[in-house]
Every structure is written in C-alpha cells, then in structure tokens.
Amino acid sequence: MKVKLITIYAGPRGTYGAGDVADFSDEEARALIDGRHAEEYAEVLPPETASLAGGKGGGATEKALTPAQENRKASAAVRAAAKKAVKAKKAEKAERA
After folding, report:
1. For the chain, which terminus, N or C, has the lower number of CB atoms within 10 Å?
2. Are strands 14-16 and 61-63 parallel, antiparallel or unpaired?
3. Which residues fall within 8 angstroms of residue 27, CB to CB, at 6 or more apart?
C-alpha cells in the first residue's frame, strides 16, 4: 500500500523524509497510518476536460481543477469567512461601547 509519510522514517526498508511517498506492506502501512506517521496516498491523475452542459452539442467546457487549485480556492473561502467574522466581532464590540 502506498502512503505519504508525515514524519521521517528510518528502518530496515531504508530512510524516507516527511512528504515522501513509499510502498509498504498493508500491515506496516496501517500501523504507520494508525500512528499518524503517514496518510493514505492516492495517485492524482491529470485533470480531464469536462463538459458543463453534459451531452452533445454546445456547452462550455472547463478543465477540472488540480488539487493545488482546489486548495487555493478553499483557502480563499476560509480567508473570506475569517474576514467576515472579524468584521462582525468589531461591529459587536462597537455596539457595546
């Protein structure tokens, strides 16, 4: 089973750094995952073009987002929510004053 290591690993199989992807037996991989030293690794396939209209004919086509693009999009949403919460807290504080 392939895992992505969160921490360094040194053992009879060799040494790996944090972030390295390695192939371990299912038993050893489970032990690393359960101990929070690794996470399951799924290979990311290149993005494919998907039709937004579905079916033949017109319709916009758009490339699927890469994981990095999805992370940036999610991070932007989190930042926007945090800004909104800060504004609300400031307004609440101003009302009490």
Report:
1. C
2. unpaired
3. none
Q: How far apart are CA 97 and CA 92, in angstroms?
A: 9
Q: What sign for the dihedral angle of Cα 22, 25, 12, 9?
A: positive
Structure tokens belonging to residue 61: 């086509």
HSE of 90, CA atoms in CB hemisphere, 13 A? 6
Using the Cα atoms of residue 90, residue 92, residue 95 and residue 97 in order, give the sign of their dihedral: negative
**How distant, in Å, are the alpha carbons of 45, 62, 66, 82, 89 from that of 59?**
24, 10, 22, 36, 44
Residue 80 DSSP SS3: helix
Q: Which sequence spans correspond to the domains of the chain?
A: 2-40, 49-96
